Amino acid sequence: MCQQVFFLRHAEVDRPILLGQRYDASLSEEGRQQAEAWARALQGIPFQAILTSPAHRARETAAIVAAGRAPVVAFPHFQEVGWGAWEGLPRAEALPLLKTQSQKWAEGAWDWAPPGGETLQAVLDRALEGLQLAYSLYPAGNLLIVTHGRLLQALLCHLLGYPPSQQGRFHHRRGQLTWAVRLPQGLYYLRALAIDARAPL
What we know:
Blueprint: E1 3-9, H1 29-41, E2 47-52, H2 56-66, E3 72-74, H3 91-106, H4 120-137, E4 142-147, H5 149-159, E5 177-182, E6 188-195
Parallel strand pairs: 1-4, 2-3, 2-4
Antiparallel strand pairs: 1-5, 5-6
Helix pairs in contact: 1-2, 4-5
């Protein structure tokens, strides 16, 4: 049986720092509007469960989208990448560091990590473990996973069989969603990639 899996990057926040795992934020007004728009766009899709990163920004997004129609369950496996010493830096200061990280991972350096942070291999291992747990708990029916941009980028690249150098094609802005179908043999194909709530499903 095929299973529809929707991947949503949490909605917009105002805090102008690199959040990571140690820093968090509530949704901005724009973010709440994004989440509310997804609640409307997805209201015709019955979800067996909505799985979310434990970060407040992701849980808040998930709760708004769920609108009481489906259980919301926090999975630590879908937490943001641990950026180590970079977390809390102003975004302008963090951006060149993140560019270096993206280049390293695109080159296939899966064992490279920011100082005190996570490697790509560690991120993928826990994300894939979370997916397997999700499928064991919810083997049928639609799932929505609310997570973070960099994890989502690496995970989708891996699930769809692309080399690390192609991770950039799976970039999501905050509040964007990807719609995938999981086939019985474990393969995936995409119905929509990195779309906004105003795009038709």
